[in-house]
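Work Package 3 (structural annotation) set out to generate three-dimensional models for the target panel prioritized at the project kickoff. During this period the team completed the workflow that converts sequence records into discrete structure tokens, so that structures can be stored uniformly alongside our sequence database. As a representative example, we reproduce one entry of 414 residues exactly as it appears in the project archive.
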Amino acid sequence: MLRGLPGLALTSTLVLLLITSALPQRATPAALATSSDAADDPVVTAQAGGFSDVPSGHVFAEDIAWLASTGITQGRGDGTFGLNDPVTRGAMAAFLYRFSERPRVPVDAQRFADVPQGHTFDSDIAWLASTGITRGRADGTFGLNEPVTRGAMAAFLYRAAGAPPVPTGVPAFADVPAGHTFATEIAWLASTGITRGRDDGTFGLGDDVTRGQMAAFLSRFDEWLLPQPGAVFATPEDGAVQLGWIPVPVAAVAYQVERAPGRWGPWELVTTTDTDADGLRIEELDNGVALFLRLRSVDDAGRTSLTTEPVGVTPVALPAIDPELTDDTIRVTRSQVLAASPAEDGTSRVTLDDQIPIDGPGQLLVIEPSPPMPRGMLAEVIEIVANHLGPGQQLLLTDAALDEVFVDPQIDWD
């Protein structure tokens, strides 16, 4: 399950995207293969965890089987899963607590008036409150037995992910007003592919989440958090971008590289290369003008078997820099970066090894140049962010001025 945040991607000097795929014991979930959350493709391989109310051909069978295999659910005493029953707030706390591998609950964690000490979900809810994923209600209650709406579900997962930045230009759902309490959370959920909404263009904002649907949402959330081997990375250069990738385990005879001015297109073909290639250089680009790139693998019938998520990059002429650091700067090796995610405002959320001694905001960092970071990363810590999703310390960073990090910024690393 959780092993840090997804999609390694670093400031303006590097953007790296890891390709997510199903866990080894699962085929790609059928629910992810359609345009909506209410998928209708019954082709799955799992046996739904042995629950008597989940046929092996059900659209959520594989997700439910995965949920049971991880120990996130044990089902009910009568051998059923409760496929179409709504998820209660107490059960949601339990799902997320177990998903996070049952971390230690702080002794001073907030308790709620409607959750008796010793209740089945007492520890789960206390942990949820200690992380900030829930703050409960104004009257001091949690709403233990109340159903979770799809809007609230989006908020729970968004906060569990660390409230990451939301890309601009995410298509809105017809039933989610721009100023709604959960508008940001739902936009993020859509940007990750965890939800695609419904075929009529709505999200189902106030509808209850069923236990079957929640299995699918958690399965997709897990895939978003757990990138598997295979990566695409883009390094900006002067008037160019160096694009590279680790070949992905799919049946392909060629790779197509496409570009677009924005995350959502329109896409145009840049070039086609054979599967022996692991990178290429795209030239004649304008410095300072962002573009998005993606890789598509094509089989011998001309069908696309995999399309990566778009990765944004901005060509830039970088100054030469000196590797001699000032006394108050910490050098971080590439292996000490566990995860990172850039925002369009120039900041990045980066998860580093716990052993790196970060003093707090204002700390200067330099990540050494090394593949796939040939130009390194220069940054200043803005904030230390609570990391509830795995090992490491999560930081909010911004680009640092070169003369703050290097004694004499004159010598090129190359």
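The chain has seven helices and 15 strands.
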